[in-house]
Design a protein that fits this description.
By secondary structure, the protein is α/β, with parallel strands linked by helices. 39% of the residues lie in helices and 23% in strands. It has one domain: Rossmann fold (3-Layer(aba) Sandwich). A hairpin with a 4-residue loop joins β3 and β4. It is globular.
């Protein structure tokens, strides 16, 4: 991690004179640790004197009602379930040094919060993390640097289940907490096998080829390998 931070600080510090914003993309499979790594990178960059904002592309998921109406309720997270045009416009505005808004997504309600948005300034370092960060040429062209978080799918599954059960324990009123435990566990297993793994192999893992840096994680979440392309 220290080596990665040193490299990133050098890259951000060496950006072109007059460049108001540096967009840093972090992608990888579901539960691979994108958010955790983004926060760690953000803390390191802030310690080096760079203001940082972190956003997740979950905000660009289409609302559940819209997905259900289109027959996409069981494909949530696949490319077609995102408002890709809105994501492109968001990145374009930031890259031009303009403030931009992103919808707010709740992992408690498992949906976009109606009428809520967050304003992100087009300045400093903006870390954008999500499974779809590098899935289109338009998005890829906006990042000054991109990272792919790689992990064994078996490890990621364990982290995924732990995260969901953590949400349930933290908030008994959350979407998943209200489900019957047996039904819920079967849903989690099916979601991983038929949704997340399929999405990983078909749409997420292929974007590793577009990342500037590949970070390989071990079962205990430590960074095991670092490859610059």
């Amino acid at each position: 991690m220290a080596r990665l931070l040193a490299d990133l600080v050098a890259r951000v510090s060496g950006r072109a004179a007059g460049q108001e914003v540096f967009l840093l993309g972090v992608t990888g499979g579901v539960a691979a640790g994108k958010s955790t790594l983004a926060r760690a990178i953000g803390d390191g960059l802030e310690a080096a004197g760079h203001p940082v904002q972190i956003v997740a592309t979950d905000g660009f998921l289409k609302p559940n009602a819209q997905l259900e109406a289109a027959g996409l309720g069981m494909k949530k997270g696949f490319p077609e379930t995102y408002d890709t045009g809105a994501l492109h416009a968001f990145l374009e505005a930031l890259a031009a040094g303009r403030a931009a808004q992103i919808p707010v997504y709740s992992h408690v309600t498992y949906d976009v919060l109606p009428g809520e948005a967050r304003t992100v300034d087009g300045a400093g370092v903006v870390i954008v993390e999500g499974i779809n960060v590098l899935q289109t040429p338009q998005a890829r062209s906006r990042f000054g640097l991109s990272l792919y978080v790689d992990a064994d799918p078996a490890h990621a599954k364990a982290w995924y289940l732990a995260r969901l059960h953590g949400i349930i324990e933290a908030d008994p009123e959350s979407f998943f907490a209200r489900l019957d435990p047996v039904q819920r566990d079967a849903m989690f297993e099916a979601a991983w096998t038929h949704l997340n793994l399929v999405n990983l192999h078909q749409h997420i893992a292929p974007t590793m080829a577009h990342a500037d840096v590949v970070v390989r994680k071990a079962a205990d979440h430590t960074l095991q390998e670092l490859r610059w392309r």
